[in-house]
Amino acid sequence: MKQELSITDFKVRTTIVVQWGEMDAFQHVNNVNYVRWGETARIDYFKAMGFIINQNPKKMLYAPILGFQSVKYISPVLYPDTIIIGTRTEEIKSDRFVLNSYFFSTQQKRLVALKTHEVVIVDYNKQQKIALPKAVIEDINQLEN
Fold it and tell me: Residue 14's Cα: distance from chain center in Å?
């Protein structure tokens, strides 16, 4: 039997306080907010890896860029609530790494959404995607282990 995930299973966690204005006409949090919250979680993960955020890209050898994202909605979120997002690397490929962000509702005491982020690395000087540098793989392994 597969064990259920808990927020304690994640080394990188992001806390989001749901705002009243994030709800839509159907009285639940609008789907675009999950994308925004996931972006915050992804940046928190990058910072935990050691990437410097808001640095001039031209001064960097390479930088992470979102190549693909998807969100699976499991249960509607309502105001008031606090969402704790646990993010981790699920897969490392030759040209990207795949993060998953798990959204846990403190009101519902359960997983309410899952976001997948495929992250590629770009050489800003050449303006092209590059193979995943060994240093990035090492940073991920150090963070996750």
Answer: 9
Average pLDDT value for residue range 97-119: 98
**CB-count exposure of residue 94 (10 Å: 0-12, 13-18, 19+):** exposed
| 139 assigned to some structural domain | yes
Which run of H or of E encompasses 104? strand 96-105
pLDDT band at 29 (very low <50, low <70, confident <90, very high): very high
Instruction: Look at the chain and report how many structural domains it folds into.
Output: 1
Task: Kindly report the CATH number assigned to the domain that includes residue 59.
Answer: 3.10.129.10
Residue 38 phi/psi, 5-degree rounding, is -65, -35
Measuring CA to CA, which residue among 130, 140, 116, 118 is closest to residue 11?
A: 140
The string over 5-30, giving b where at least 16 C-beta atoms fall within 10 Å of a residue's C-beta and e elsewhere, is eeeeebebbbebebeeebbeeeeebe
Mean pLDDT of the 32-40 span? 98
pLDDT of residue 1: 47
User: What range does the domain containing 66 cover?
Assistant: 7-144
How large is the average pLDDT for residues 103-108? 98
Q: Is residue 49 part of a domain?
A: yes
